[in-house]
UniProtKB/TrEMBL annotation:
One GO molecular-function entry: iron-sulfur cluster binding
SUPFAM superfamilies noted in UniProt: SufE/NifU
Residue span, NIF system FeS cluster assembly NifU N-terminal domain: 10-128
Region of interest (Disordered), ranges: 144-163
Protein name, entry field: NifU-like protein involved in Fe-S cluster assembly
Pfam family, one: NifU_N
Any one GO biological process: iron-sulfur cluster assembly
Family: Belongs to the NifU family.
Length: 163
């Protein structure tokens, strides 16, 4: 397949996830909730999840944002569904490594989200792509499992939000 056809396919997958996001909405029984904002471009993401039997049994997101942030959130929710928190954290770390340009990894663990690797060519869009992943990390690490609000500050930071 020619490179331009492959790029077109990737764009189509991203657009499909943005226009028809998976796991979009709210959960009535969420035990972890967070809202993160990307002040650079105005993306806002609310993430809700239910942990049951040491796995993510339900996950949903809502909010407003660009195509990249919405597609990434959709892809992330697909990828982490039914994963343990430890498995989800490993995926978050792998996604972050991918965004900073690490090329020595097997990205298949990330499922559809692996196609977002091209975003690293556009540094201003990295925060858009990582917003949902950082929200999940913060939600899983939060002592207070209910609503937390913060802003994503730097894609390379380990503690990415202000309280």
């Amino acid at each position: 397949m020619a490179l331009s056809k492959l790029d077109n396919l990737y764009r189509q997958v991203i657009l499909d996830h943005a226009q028809h996001p998976h796991h979009h909405g709210h959960l009535t029984t969420a035990d972890h909730e967070i809202e993160l904002r990307n002040p650079t471009c105005g993306d806002v993401l609310q993430l809700e999840l239910v942990l049951e039997d040491d796995q993510i049994s339900q996950i949903a997101f809502s909010g407003e944002g660009c195509t990249i942030s919405q597609a990434s959130a959709s892809m992330m929710t697909d990828a982490v569904m039914h994963k343990t928190p430890a498995q989800a954290e490993a995926m978050i770390e792998r996604f972050s490594d991918m965004m900073i340009g690490d090329r020595d990894e097997d990205w298949s663990l990330l499922e559809d989200a692996a196609i977002l690797q091209g975003v690293q060519q556009f540094p201003a869009r990295i925060k858009c792509a990582t917003l949902a992943w950082k929200a999940l990390h913060k939600a899983l690490k939060s002592d207070d499992q209910r609503t937390t609000t913060g802003q994503i500050m730097n894609h390379a930071e380990t503690e990415e939000t202000n309280q």
